[in-house]
């Protein structure tokens, strides 16, 4: 699929139903509708990536005190491994820079090798880990912590 006509818009409360379809499709332990609605209400940067009228993915970032954090980035299965994630990351980086963020952070499961590859190709570097960060079927899974300098 060609990702040239990918565009981005702010997520609204009315979009959460569509967002949840992708969230449930790609995660064993998805965020809840309430989490997304709370993120919108408190003013996090909540975005949707679209191609024509199809939702490709969604993202939530926080930007405060010169630092940004990707809290959620999800690309629908039909759009994975085609450059959509990388394009979305670059959009999020531009949004964070526009809000004077000098650094962008994110966590990722070590088992999510496709996402790790995407983050590496987008200029992120592993800087640490967080023990027992994610729920897992057999307890908890650590997170790898990645960062990218934006300035």
Question: How would you describe the overall organization of this protein?
Answer:
This protein is of the alpha+beta class and 151 residues long. It has a single domain (6-149), classed as Aminopeptidase, CATH 3.40.630. It contains four helices and seven strands. The protein has helices at 16-26, 33-42, 84-98, 113-121; strands at 6-10, 45-51, 54-64, 67-75, 103-108, 125-136, 139-149. The protein has a seven-stranded mixed β-sheet. A hairpin with a 2-residue loop joins strand 3 (54-64) and strand 4 (67-75). The longest helix has 15 residues, at 84-98. The chain is globular. The termini are far apart.
> What is the topology, as strand order, of the major beta sheet?
1-2-3-4-5-7-6
Number of strands: 7
General form: globular
Note the gap between the termini: 32 Å
Determine and state the CATH class: Alpha Beta
Counting copies of identical and different chains, the oligomeric state is: single chain
Tell me the CATH superfamily: Gcn5-related N-acetyltransferase (GNAT)
Major beta-sheet overview: 7 strands, mixed
Tally of DSSP helical segments: 4
Question: Percent helix among the residues?
Answer: 25-40%
Poorly predicted segments: none
Helix/strand/pairing category: alpha+beta
Strand content: 35-45%
When the domains are counted, the total is: 1
CATH-derived topology: Aminopeptidase
